[in-house]
């Protein structure tokens, strides 16, 4: 038992810490967007899908930061050879770098699935709210807000085109939507080509497809920078909106 703890203890601590950080990030960002007063109006349009999209996004940022570290050869070689900073137990864990790399990859896949599904609901609701903007509802009034001095729009969808065409238009005409499609497709190709049968039978496919990580990370940065999400949280403005309904 003592030998097992000595051999596996550090691995368990690292994995539990990693899972704990993921759980904390997800729960914290979920509460911020689901209950925070800053996003009161946004929730009127997006509904609960807002929090379900933003929480995994925070986890994706964290795991995408980690995913390359276990496969950085020079860094691993330096750590293995540095007896000053690495004990025998830590060097043993470094030999399991690919296992941790795969675990992080599956975590990225999980949060990508949640993030994508949530955004599908978000886009559907935004397009529907824009189409019905003339109706006397809170969603309609909020969708009619414009991007000008003293006012900011909450519904970035400006064309009154019904779903599914309206949703497709959002996916391919907005930078955030287009880059989201690109990086999701890149991730799907990377993951599917990493299965054991592909690696063993068609290693070249696995090897070259993995180089799509360059497109993935470039798209990820642009995806975040191209955010179209806005907030509108003044309580005095809410009173004015309520009177207009």
Automatic annotation (TrEMBL):
<keyword id="KW-0472">Membrane</keyword>
<keyword id="KW-0285">Flavoprotein</keyword>
<keyword id="KW-0406">Ion transport</keyword>
<keyword id="KW-0249">Electron transport</keyword>
<keyword id="KW-0274">FAD</keyword>
<dbReference type="GO" id="GO:0043020">
    <property type="term" value="C:NADPH oxidase complex"/>
</dbReference>
<keyword id="KW-0813">Transport</keyword>
<dbReference type="GO" id="GO:0042554">
    <property type="term" value="P:superoxide anion generation"/>
</dbReference>
<dbReference type="GO" id="GO:0006811">
    <property type="term" value="P:monoatomic ion transport"/>
</dbReference>
<feature type="transmembrane region" description="Helical">
    <location>
        <begin position="168"/>
        <end position="191"/>
    </location>
</feature>
<keyword id="KW-1133">Transmembrane helix</keyword>
<feature type="transmembrane region" description="Helical">
    <location>
        <begin position="212"/>
        <end position="235"/>
    </location>
</feature>
<dbReference type="GO" id="GO:0006952">
    <property type="term" value="P:defense response"/>
</dbReference>
<keyword id="KW-0812">Transmembrane</keyword>
<feature type="domain" description="Ferric oxidoreductase">
    <location>
        <begin position="76"/>
        <end position="220"/>
    </location>
</feature>
<dbReference type="InterPro" id="IPR050369">
    <property type="entry name" value="RBOH/FRE"/>
</dbReference>
<feature type="transmembrane region" description="Helical">
    <location>
        <begin position="100"/>
        <end position="121"/>
    </location>
</feature>
<keyword id="KW-0521">NADP</keyword>
<keyword id="KW-0560">Oxidoreductase</keyword>
<dbReference type="InterPro" id="IPR000778">
    <property type="entry name" value="Cyt_b245_heavy_chain"/>
</dbReference>
<feature type="transmembrane region" description="Helical">
    <location>
        <begin position="12"/>
        <end position="33"/>
    </location>
</feature>
<dbReference type="GO" id="GO:0016175">
    <property type="term" value="F:superoxide-generating NAD(P)H oxidase activity"/>
</dbReference>
<dbReference type="Pfam" id="PF01794">
    <property type="entry name" value="Ferric_reduct"/>
</dbReference>
<protein>
    <recommendedName>
        <fullName>Ferric oxidoreductase domain-containing protein</fullName>
    </recommendedName>
</protein>
<dbReference type="InterPro" id="IPR013130">
    <property type="entry name" value="Fe3_Rdtase_TM_dom"/>
</dbReference>
């Amino acid at each position: 038992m003592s030998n097992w703890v000595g051999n596996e203890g550090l691995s368990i601590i690292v994995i539990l810490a990693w899972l704990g950080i993921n759980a904390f990030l997800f729960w914290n960002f979920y509460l911020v967007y689901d209950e925070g007063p800053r996003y009161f109006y946004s929730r009127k349009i997006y509904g609960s899908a807002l929090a379900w999209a933003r929480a995994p996004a925070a986890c994706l940022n964290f795991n995408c930061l980690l995913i390359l570290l276990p496969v950085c050869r020079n860094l691993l070689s330096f750590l293995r050879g540095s007896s000053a900073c690495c004990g025998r137990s830590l060097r043993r864990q470094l030999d399991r770098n690919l296992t941790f790399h795969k675990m992080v990859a599956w975590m990225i896949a999980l949060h990508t699935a949640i993030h994508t599904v949530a955004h599908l609901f978000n886009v559907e609701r935004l397009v529907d709210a824009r189409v019905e903007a003339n109706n006397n509802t809170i969603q309609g009034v909020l969708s009619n807000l414009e991007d000008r001095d003293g006012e900011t729009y909450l519904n970035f969808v400006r064309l009154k085109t019904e779903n599914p065409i309206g949703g497709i238009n959002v996916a391919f005409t907005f930078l955030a939507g287009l880059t989201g499609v690109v990086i999701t497709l890149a991730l799907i190709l990377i993951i599917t080509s990493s299965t054991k049968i592909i690696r063993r039978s068609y290693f070249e496919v696995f090897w070259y497809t993995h180089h799509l990580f360059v497109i993935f990370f470039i798209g990820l940065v642009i995806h975040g920078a191209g955010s179209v999400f806005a907030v509108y949280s003044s309580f005095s403005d809410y009173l004015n909106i309520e009177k207009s309904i």
